[in-house]
Design a protein that fits this description.
single chain, disordered N terminus, alpha/beta, 46 helices
Length: about 1550
């Protein structure tokens, strides 16, 4: 029964049923949609009174901060439905004491408040209330009652209202036997976990929408699926939570969060903050982190929890977000006895392994805890609190913005950007940022800020960590060499062994040989056109069924070469220890390895070590072979046996298990190493034993980087590829032992690259993280052996794997004369006789070229038939599709004359993004002319475009590419370039190498390409991975906004690569206001790429496209965005299938190149293309004989084939066909033993459209570019734009004014081109805090003079303008010690000047091509990838200065001589500067080899003039003495080229330098 008193409700009785977890608010998984693949990103903030004085003002300002973070959130199809917002504050005791009259509320901190979300159903609410009271009684926690939290939902969106839950506050009293506040918090935690578990057992009816946002005696959370201005009342708008408008709601801090999710489903539980934190970022390793947490169950013991430890399981529930999972783990550590600061540093350690400047005691702290808790790896700006302390931490890479200010009345404001609330500048005493791996902490009890140094000093001195490391860890390098040098005594001939494990000639020649000789992985080009393993008639290893995941949009990849300081291959083999052993009383023993690939002698050392330390260390070897012939063993039964043996081995005390196939024989067949590794790993996780043992896989099967990555991803702590290492020694005999070292080094580099593609920095985090999708494996197999892996296309089971394995093994021992002395050819990477099938072979290439050159449609049909008909040889997933008869879906065959005309269909076609530089001008312009003739679109790629191509040719043709690509390199991306586009495409990834950057070698950078890319001829160019201004969904939204401002008439496109989960990313891209979206299949890619990426990253476009379409339809977003598909499209049938799966448009790359003359030599990366396409060699380019007519013919042939199929299927109009998956079926007639299990039901799923929504692009995306500051600036600048009259403008600016100056610059370059206006024609004086991308793509003649500060991306792509930023005169800050601009300033800058009086954040001047800038300090990675321009830093810099810097120069004031330890010496060197005047002629004054003193003095004088900098004044007044303290940073290759050019000029002009 229910008895209510006022707002307090008392309950009794409970009932319980069984239940499974559901993700609240999400639709059920359907088709290819999977709620587990949802992502979110966001803006975070906190405001705190360091004196710990609670006030309503803090809460009010927290809500105001939320409102000004609105642009970091998003809305979907329902304009009043946000992705979630919230605020975490202290429990407002005075408020509750006044409002709740019916019970005697205990004193402050002596009671706890739980916030409950309950489905709006009175029966459900009553049942839960009864249950909660009973559990309180069981746990001896006094139940005080319920309070209904008043809410106002009228302003919420129509999609949210049906999901609004009951919101109740539960009050419980502190038991008398608890004195300590931390013990009380721990008891509440146990109570909450007990309640949650009990409600889940009541069944779905009760657990659906049930959630406890917070339960604490210190803090309370108000959050929900509301817009940022709907959380609490702000101004005249009523908020959802009525409490928050009451003046008695007081707190000394507020944690706030604005969420940007990839979905639009109202999911109340995923709104942030969570109980202890709010997170902006993405935990990339969360699957592995959850697995490892589950694996700790058996060893987790705690003096704090005592017998309550079992009540809190599961620590992390399945189906939560990465942030919620992190929050759960953090709670465990904090309630287990760690301080919140210590727990955060254990979970997100800074990059300590390669940091030689780190304090040794702190290093030992990290090293001791490394085996106890693997890093939660990924970009993270986390604000956190336990109610006693409040703080924030930035991840090791610093890939999230985090700024804060401090006032003279001890208030601190921290957020993703500055300017969220107005703060009187005359009260601000400091402006700073969180740096990578650093922590900000406020101790509310001590009423003070604790610096990062103080926090880490206290923690590092808490224990003798170095001694504990020595007790618990043994470095494998310190274990003595063994007398027994030969471990493996297998007597089989090596050739037989290699044949039994499926080695091919290509494995040796293409993969292993370069690894053994050069310590580098092999490079290839032109993508892949072989069948996926599930379709191949060849015997395939299990690894090949797995595709590597990679980062795109929701999190950034990393550059493992230029940013190796954050990367690590260290791992620990053995027992991981009890993370809740706070006093470190029982340290476990493990072996530390620098990298995971072990030699034979390493295994011997481990075994010998165990024999010599048998009391503390035990190694068990388990054979992984099965004998079918004599023992009738099967793979399934043998793996089951091995799993049980492994479990027993751990119970018996083994610290390390070695799974080994060294005794393979003719009768004993090796089990697939990946299958058995994953099976054992997951079995031990399920038994709670995995952290008690290290797992080494010793196998002859693994020999390439993808194999090693798969084994690591599914649980191998270390790998010993014994046969591959032996063969590497033989392939490079002349190198001796170095051959194996090279092979291991190449493997390590390759693994780092694969890890970094997913944004993972450490092998320890990657191990067990399962960063893969499967294609063509059955869900039965996946669920049993690879739990948690996605497989969207059902396929083979363990029986087929056994058949494949057995056949391969038997074949090795058959006496076939042809194979007696040789391996099979392979044919994966190049077309080979008796090798793997390729789509592009001599017949298809010949027929296509003959068809387009002779304008013969019948020859084209012959070509198309060879590709489309896959009855005999399956090549693609779509080869298994068939079209149903039109009568079965309510249509009938029509006459072709009724079908949409070919000239309309070809307008949907585009050529792929092939950069000028990777292909010749002749090939590039040939494609552009052809596409412009037919009304389609060509794509510049990321190499820029020559200006002469913007003007029509004399004959009316145009060489202008309609699509201008903006990639991570930003080569040639000027304001003029963007203004000359119909579409601007943001390249997030490319099919051949998703998640990676690229490199254009110096020999390909001739004068023309250098001019287009704003670089130096002969100097190589590096294209970084996309992690600078597109490292999260809200940052992508900002770039889309920048580009829409740069050309309001152009459509903005985002290019993604197909992978499982790409659909949810696509939904986020649509919500980020993209007009167009490209889904690229893994088959495509014309450029150079590591072979590992070409073969093993990404998935077929059929999967990615279908998932994208389905998810967009489910979200009600499909009609607002055009979807294009590319990557291996070759025929009209491909186009029709693409349309049926959901594509509006179609991209082609390889086929039009073949039509232009390409003969598929696959040597594009060598500059030796024999037909003049993929080369910059002047003589080879003369061989190009392609004509626009050939490409035009090809596309019209494709369109005519499309029309024939449309007529057969009964479609008159192309749009009618888009998304009509019910037309498709699986072709049962194809006879293929592996394909029998393939199931495309999920691909062909057709979701229900929203009312009024089309399943094709029919609406225009609404961009917020109308009521903006630039519109006013344009109006005020009309005299200058129209007549070149100078204008001066004064205006205020705030953080919501983003991309200021960008649209104005578009108006300038549209009329005057890149040359713009005379200097300072438009002078704009601004005051305030500028929003993101201040001055992006600023044109010549425009000056932005800001008194205030900037956020991230200031001067992005600046194209000749001038920007000056200085603090307000009244500010109390010390400018040279305070932040003035954010991260990634001057990214891709082309030309112009910038003067910043203050310090910048991370990645200052990244990819600067030609701008000049002066700043008074900079963070990590300054001048990264710079190719031109001049940077002057009048203060300290961070680590990794000049990484990847190939051009331009930098001057750094190095007063403490720390630059030697901070710069990256890979590509630059440091020089001192002489005061002597360089006596050279005028034409060499700008040469970066000379004139340093005069140049530096001039720039610092400019800085003084524009910013009134005291630092500049001091230097200029003492220039001679300061000059000695400057270091010049000079790129080595750039210097060489400049010297060579100088020598060349001397010879040509007979010029001799005087003096």
């Amino acid at each position: 029964m229910t008895a209510g008193v006022g707002n307090i409700v008392f309950m009794d009785d409970i009932f319980m049923t069984k239940n499974k977890l559901t993700r609240i608010g999400f639709p059920k998984n359907q088709g290819l949609y999977d709620s587990d693949k949802e992502h979110d990103s966001c803006g975070v903030g906190l405001i705190a009174d360091i004196n710990n004085e609670a006030s309503h003002d803090i809460v009010h300002k927290g809500l105001a901060m939320l409102c000004n973070l609105e642009h970091r959130g998003a809305v979907g199809a329902d304009p009043k439905a946000g992705d979630g917002s919230g605020i975490l504050i202290q429990i407002p005791h005075n408020f509750f004491a006044k409002k709740i009259k019916d019970i005697n509320l205990p004193e402050k901190n002596n009671y706890g408040v739980g916030v409950f979300f309950i489905k709006k159903d009175p029966e459900i609410k009553e049942g839960i209330f009864k249950l909660v009271e009973k559990i309180c009684d069981k746990e001896n926690v006094p139940f005080l009652g319920w309070r209904e939290c008043p809410t106002y939902g009228d302003e919420l969106g129509w999609s949210v209202k049906p999901t609004i839950p009951f919101v109740y506050h539960l009050f419980v009293g502190k038991p008398e036997n608890i004195d300590n506040q931390d013990d009380w918090e721990r008891k509440i935690y146990v109570l909450r976990q007990s309640i949650d578990k009990a409600v889940s057992e009541m069944g779905d009816k009760y657990y659906d929408q049930f959630y406890i946002p917070s339960f604490s005696s210190r803090t309370i959370l108000y959050k929900g699926m509301v817009l940022s201005d709907q959380v609490g009342t702000v101004g005249n708008q009523l908020g959802f939570f009525e409490d928050l408008s009451d003046p008695l709601i007081e707190s000394s801090f507020a944690l706030i969060h604005q969420r940007f999710s990839t979905n639009t489903f109202p999911t109340w539980s995923l709104a942030q903050p969570f109980r202890m934190l709010c997170h902006n970022g993405e935990i990339n390793t969360v699957r592995g982190n959850i697995n490892w947490m589950n694996a700790r169950h058996s060893i987790l013991k705690s003096e704090k929890f005592k017998n309550d430890i079992d009540k809190i399981w599961p620590i992390i529930k399945e189906g939560q977000s990465d942030s919620a999972s992190f929050d759960n783990a953090l709670e465990l550590l904090v309630h287990g006895g760690y301080s919140i600061a210590e727990a955060m540093l254990i979970m997100i350690p800074e990059a300590w392994q390669n940091n030689h400047l780190l304090d040794e005691k702190l290093r030992s702290f990290y090293e001791f805890h490394a085996p106890l808790m693997e890093p939660w790896d990924g970009p993270a700006n986390i604000a956190f609190t336990d109610g006693k302390q409040i703080g924030a931490l930035l991840d090791r890479n610093g890939l999230r913005p985090a700024r804060y200010l401090l006032t003279n009345d001890n208030k601190l404001v921290f957020a993703s950007e500055m300017g969220l609330i107005p703060v009187d500048e005359s009260t601000i005493i400091s402006k700073w940022r969180l740096q990578p791996g650093k922590m900000l902490l406020i101790d509310l009890d001590k009423k003070s800020i604790v610096s990062d140094e103080e926090i880490k000093k206290e923690i590092s001195e808490k224990n003798d960590w170095k001694k504990l490391v020595q007790l618990s860890q043994v470095n494998i390098e310190n274990i003595p060499e063994t007398k027994n040098t030969v471990r493996i005594k297998n007597t089989l001939p090596q050739l037989k062994l290699m044949q039994a494990f499926g080695y091919t000639q290509e494995d040796e020649g293409f993969l292993m040989n370069p690894m053994a000789h050069t310590a580098m992985e092999a490079i290839g080009s032109m993508g892949t056109d072989t069948p996926v393993s599930a379709l191949s008639r060849k015997s395939k290893l299990l690894y090949t069924y797995f595709k590597q995941n990679f980062a795109q949009v929701t999190n950034p990849p990393i550059d493992p070469i230029r940013e190796e300081i954050v990367m690590s291959l260290f791992n620990y083999i053995g027992e991981r220890g009890n993370i809740l052993d706070i006093e470190s009383k029982d340290p476990s023993t493990c072996i530390k390895v620098k990298q995971p690939i072990l030699k034979e002698q390493d295994i011997n050392k481990i075994i010998d070590f165990s024999k010599n330390n048998s009391e503390t260390f035990k190694v068990d070897e388990i054979e992984i072979t099965f004998n079918k012939q004599e023992k009738n063993e099967s793979i399934g039964s043998k793996i089951e046996e091995i799993c049980i043996a492994s479990e027993q081995s751990v119970i018996n005390g083994s610290n390390i298990i070695i799974l080994t196939d060294i005794n393979v024989s003719e009768k004993d067949i090796a089990l697939p190493a990946l299958l058995v590794t994953s099976a054992v790993h997951h079995h031990l996780i399920r038994k709670g034993l995995r952290t008690s043992v290290g797992l080494i896989i010793e196998t002859a099967e693994a020999r390439e980087i993808h194999h090693f990555c798969c084994l690591a991803g599914y649980g191998a702590d270390a790998i010993s590829p014994w046969l591959a290492l032996r063969r590497a020694s033989e392939l490079a005999k002349e190198l001796g032992e170095e051959a194996q070292d090279n092979f291991i080094k190449a493997s390590g580099k390759g693994m780092l690259k694969v890890m970094s593609k997913m944004g993972i920095s450490t092998y320890q985090s990657y191990c067990g993280a399962q960063i893969f999708d499967a294609i063509g494996l059955s869900s039965t197999l996946i669920n049993k052996y690879f739990t948690g892996t996605s497989s969207k296309v059902e396929g083979i089971n363990v029986d087929e794997i056994e058949r494949e394995t057995t056949n391969r093994h038997k074949k090795a021992f058959e006496n076939l004369p042809a194979l007696d002395n040789m391996l099979e050819v392979g044919g994966e990477y190049a077309l080979r006789l008796r090798g793997e099938e390729h789509v592009w072979n001599s017949d298809t290439v010949r027929d296509l070229q003959h068809a387009v050159r002779s304008d013969s449609f019948s020859t084209y049909e012959n070509y198309a038939k060879q590709i489309n008909d896959q009855d005999k040889k399956l090549m693609t997933l779509r080869g298994l599709f068939k079209f149903k008869k039109p009568e079965s879906y309510g249509r009938s065959k029509i006459d072709i004359d009724q079908v949409e005309d070919a000239k309309e269909i070809v307008k949907r076609f585009a050529t792929g993004a092939m950069s000028y530089g990777s292909i010749s001008r002749e090939a590039h312009t040939n494609l552009a002319i052809a596409m412009n003739r037919i009304g389609g679109k060509s794509n510049t790629g990321e190499g820029g475009e020559e200006v002469d191509r913007y003007k029509p040719m004399d004959n009316g043709d145009s060489m202008r590419s309609a699509i201008k690509q903006v990639a991570s390199g930003r080569f040639g991306v000027t304001a003029e370039y963007l203004s000359n586009s119909d579409m601007i495409q943001i390249k997030m990834a490319q099919g051949a190498k998703p998640g990676e950057g690229g490199q254009l070698p110096g020999h390909k950078v001739d004068e023309t390409i250098a001019k287009v890319r704003y670089s130096t001829p002969g100097v190589g160019l590096i294209s970084p991975p996309p992690h600078h201004d597109i490292y999260s969904i809200e940052d992508l939204a900002q770039l889309i906004y920048d580009l829409k401002n740069a050309n309001p008439e152009a459509a903005i496109s985002v290019k993604l690569v197909s992978e499982v989960g790409v659909g949810t990313v696509a939904a986020g891209v649509s919500k980020a206001k993209a007009d167009h979206l490209t889904i690229s299949g893994f088959e495509g890619g014309t450029g150079a790429s590591p072979l590992t990426s070409i073969k093993h990253a990404g998935s077929p476009w059929e999967i990615g496209l279908a998932e994208t379409h389905q998810t967009l339809v489910l979200n009600g977003l499909r009609s607002r965005i055009a979807v294009q598909v590319d990557g291996g499209l070759r025929t009209g049938r491909d186009v029709v299938i693409g349309a049926l799966l959901g594509a509006d448009e179609f991209g082609f790359s390889t086929a039009p190149l073949i039509a232009s003359g390409c003969i598929m030599m696959r040597k594009c990366h060598l500059n030796t293309c024999p037909v003049g396409i993929a080369t910059q060699d002047k003589e080879l380019r003369k061989l190009f004989n392609g004509q626009p007519e050939h490409v035009v013919n090809y596309f019209f042939f494709v369109a005519e084939e499309v029309r024939k199929l449309m007529a057969d299927l009964g479609f008159k109009n192309f749009n009618e066909m888009v998304g009509e998956t019910d037309v498709l079926d699986t072709n049962e007639a194809i006879d293929h033993w592996k394909a029998e299990g393939l199931d495309f039901e999920k691909l062909f799923y057709k979701p229900q459209s929203w009312d009024g929504e089309d399943s094709f692009n029919s609406k225009i995306q609404e961009h917020d570019i109308y009521d903006i500051l630039d519109r006013k600036l344009i109006d005020d600048s009309l005299p200058a734009i129209e007549n070149r009259f100078p204008v001066k403008i004064n205006t205020k600016i705030n953080n919501t004014d983003r991309s200021t100056g960008t649209m104005l610059s578009h108006m300038v370059v549209k009329k005057y081109g890149h040359s713009g206006l005379p200097d300072d024609t438009i002078n704009i004086q601004l005051k305030g805090t500028a929003g993101q991308s201040f001055g992006a793509f600023l044109a010549k003649g425009v000056t932005l003079d800001l008194e205030g500060e900037g956020n991230d991306y200031v001067a992005k792509g600046i194209s000749g303008g001038r920007i000056t930023i200085r603090p307000p005169e009244e500010s109390l800050i010390i400018p040279e010690k305070s932040m003035i601009v954010g991260n990634t300033v001057l990214y891709g800058a082309i030309e112009g000047e910038c003067y910043f009086r203050g310090i910048s954040g991370e990645r200052f001047a990244v990819r600067n091509s030609g701008a000049t800038a002066v700043v008074e300090g900079a963070g990590d990675h300054c001048c990264e990838y710079m190719t031109g321009g001049i940077i002057v830093v009048l203060g300290k810099v961070g680590r990794n200065f000049g990484a990847g810097m190939s051009g331009g120069i930098a001057y750094v004031l190095d007063e403490d001589e720390s630059l030697n330890d901070l710069y990256n010496p890979q590509m630059v060197e440091l020089e001192t500067i002489s005061e002597s005047k360089d006596n050279i002629k005028d034409e060499f004054l700008d040469n970066h080899l000379f004139n340093d003193a005069a140049r530096l003095e001039k720039l610092i004088t400019n800085h003084l003039h524009y910013t009134n900098s005291k630092t500049a004044e001091k230097i200029i007044n003492n220039f001679s003495s300061y000059l000695k303290k400057f270091k010049k940073v000079m790129p080595i290759e750039y210097k060489r080229v400049l010297e060579e050019n100088l020598e060349k000029d001397k010879i040509e002009n007979n010029f001799e330098k005087v003096g």
